[in-house]
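If you are new to this repository, start here. Below is one unmodified record pulled from the training split, so you can see the exact layout before writing a loader.
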Amino acid sequence: MAQETELGGYQLVGRLAVGGMAEVYQAKARSSTQKSPGEPDDIVIKRLLPSYRNDAAWVKQFVDEAKLTVRLRHANIVRTYRCFKAGMDYLMVQELVSGRTLQYMQDAFKQAGATIPASASTYIGICLLRALDYVHRAKVGDGGGTIVHRDINPSNILLSVAGDVKLTDFGVAEVEGVTRGDSGALRGTISYMAPEAVLGQMVDHRADLFSAGIILWELFAGERLFAGNSEMEMMHKVRDGRVPNVQKLNPEIPDQGAAIVRKALQPDRGARFQTAAEFAKVLEILARRNSWPVSVDALKPLLGG
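And here is the target side for that same chain:
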């Protein structure tokens, strides 16, 4: 089969990733491409995998993601410009972020026997929480429901070469009061789920904050929190909620940093941070008390600066 060179009027540069229900390409607009207002020439095309395009449920999930994300405009969220159908293909045009996923950076540091500096980890956490604050406050739908991302994990956080931190992949997001899929169904990445999600209970925005807490704990510790050899093993670990003191793994983490992740990872959602803004605020205080920059300067160790 010949390699594709064009999709929806865009010239394909190369495939970036494939997984779940979609594949992602870097692409470039041609002179004849009908772009949306403000759309740059260099973009990303997300395509629903051909094996799913005749399945109404998968098509709806893909289109719903596009309809949701095209409304989100925030510096820490990957922008979606439009969604359209070209022939048999369902396509989403998104912002091109030149860089790596947070998961890639964590793996690279671990392989080098190092831990991402606490200053950089804190700034990444602040940026993620700023994105979540915007998402959770963005009321959508007829009833003005709250958005829950439901898949906050390091593979869905992009770090650009310029130092931007951006949240992406709203494929399993839901709007409060509008359930996607079966009620109580597991949606997201098990090792980054909140206990209530693993137990099949109704979730709200605080499940996203628990996921952010896992990411921050792992950045501080340089280790996975809820790792396991099977999904069932990981589910049991999340459900039991046993979180080691991060300072035992990384003594350089300040007491305040350890206390922050401890609160973020409380099994009882009422005992956690109640909003992303509250969570971000304590991280900003942590950074100031330790003279860590709350800017792209904090990411210099990751950017080669």
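Two things worth knowing about this chain: The mean pLDDT is 90. The longest strand covers residues 10-19.
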